[in-house]
Design goal:
Layout: E1 7-17, E2 24-30, E3 52-55, H1 56-64, H2 67-72, E4 76-80, H3 88-100, E5 104-109, H4 119-123, E6 127-131, H5 137-144, H6 149-161, E7 165-171, H7 179-192, E8 195-202, H8 208-214, H9 228-240
Parallel strand pairs: 2-4, 4-5, 5-6, 6-7, 7-8
Antiparallel strand pairs: 1-2, 1-3
Length: 246
């Protein structure tokens, strides 16, 4: 099977700047996710059936239309989700093709399925955008329905390979704002030696209409976004650990 014929389930794609890796990016959102994060803004990506069957070649032909512009803008291709590591062979094919177009590659993942990322996939991955959603295992389980240990193991594996990481931390009042929680993530990230930056992402409720359309209750409908003082405090905690935070 050649790279172009590798099948996958694509939810959607977009062009973005400044939020999915460096520069302007062609972002492929894959369908399917094993987590059910309380703050998830994209419940329409949870199931593989939410995507459209395609091939890596078809997605790459779409990306090629923007390749020159994206390259000049210092960007590349990001594969996101859902959880892209539900489809590791598809991701590897997309990144192999993106490299052939001269594009930087970034994997946006929660890391829980990191064991599915073979060395060949990581060999064509320039950057990992790693969502560390919580530090305490019980809190992580309550927040996502999953376990944090596989994410931490994946981060250590990336560090051993020297793969750059951008940590993403969603700040939710009453859930992920506890100082000890932030300190745990900050200390761990600082210990890896490959974390280039931490993006503190303030919780918002913009995805609530999707839940309504799908007939699913939005668990955090009554939770307010964090105020500026809280966001600043959390960013400063990461900076105090020696990390660049924004």
């Amino acid at each position: 099977m050649t790279v172009t014929t590798v099948p996958g389930r694509l939810h959607s794609w977009d062009i973005s700047t400044g939020v999915d890796g460096p520069g302007t990016r062609f972002v492929a959102f894959l369908a399917g996710c094993p987590l059910r994060c309380l703050y998830c803004q994209n419940p329409d990506t949870w199931h593989m059936r939410d995507g459209t069957g395609t091939t890596a070649g078809a997605v790459l032909r779409q990306a090629e239309q923007f390749a020159a512009f994206v390259h000049v803008a210092g960007g590349g291709m990001t594969v996101s989700g859902g959880e892209p590591l539900l489809q590791p062979r598809f991701v590897e094919a997309l990144f192999t093709g993106a490299r052939g177009l001269g594009l930087h590659t970034a994997l946006d993942t929660a890391g829980g399925l990191g064991a599915r990322a073979c060395d060949a996939l990581l060999d064509v991955t320039d950057l990992v955008l790693l969502d560390i959603k919580a530090w305490d295992p019980a809190r992580y389980r309550r927040l996502t329905g999953g376990e944090v240990a596989p994410t931490l193991a994946f981060a250590r594996r990336l560090a051993a390979r020297g793969t750059p990481i951008w940590v993403r931390y969603v700040l939710v009042p009453g859930l992920t704002d506890d100082p000890s929680e932030v300190d745990g993530v900050a200390r761990f990230a600082a210990s890896l030696g490959v974390v280039e930056r931490v993006d503190v992402l303030p919780f918002h409720r913009l995805g609530a209409p999707k839940y309504e359309r799908l007939g699913i209750p939005f668990p955090l409908r009554g939770t307010p976004p964090p105020d500026t003082a809280l966001v600043d405090r959390v960013r400063e905690q990461f900076r105090s650990a020696g990390l660049a935070a924004s």
